[in-house]
Amino acid sequence: MINKIKLGKRGVIGEGILMIYRLMLISFIALVVMGAAAVFYSYYVDVRDVEARIMAVNVVNCLAPNGVFLADNLNGYGGNVLEYCKISNSGKFYINVSVSGKKYEAGDSSLLWIREMYKNSAGESIKKYEPGYFSEVYPVIVDGKEDKLKIEVLVNHEF
Amino acid sequence: MHEIIIHLILIGLIFALFFYVTAGRVNSKEVKQQVVEKEIALLIDSAEKGMSFSINKLNMNGQINGFKVENGKVFALIDNQKISKGYDYFSKYSVSVDEREDRFIVHVR
Questions:
Q1: What predicted TM-score, i.e. pTM, was given to this entire model?
Q2: How far is B93 from chain A (nearest CA, A)?
């Protein structure tokens, strides 16, 4: 009688272990199918080039309101254009402004060489990591003289 | 007998969760959510101080049942979605949202 009870307990434990194993197997299969669905049905809407363009327009309007570049004000901010324009930098932007032989920048400059790398070669599968880019030259007045302001904006991916 | 029932309930729960997550992907709710959040973030970024714009709750991307702007991010919930990662905007102005019966109004101040 005692032997039978012992055997029954072992059987229950064995059944429990087998159940855990089966559940793990089913969970694994479910995860694989979910992963496949995630890969096939996910789609990334890329707006980084548009963001770069909007950022460039905002920065130029801030640095040169009505086309007059106010360099003295910017020097007080260590040349950080985003800080000067009170635009919050979430870490995904790099801005480079060149005017009258001076350079002002803000953000992570490593985005420049990432973009260079993509220009040279990039497979389709990693294309979504390419930074958004916008560059333009605007005519401005600096110290009463006509000059050019070149702005370059890069936007990092969000992954 | 009890073990089999527990077993079946657990398998049922796993598959219910699996179908719930997969359905979200297949019916493209997440893409629609992405479109709404990014469209509104870009509108906020390009808006001047004092501008307002409204978003209809019954949108071409579905029914927007939740919308908020918080910590520099835009969050939209489409067709009874429960979660959103949100999308960053970078406007230097203060942004707030008013909810009306049929639309949300975004104010850039």
A1: 0.77
A2: 9
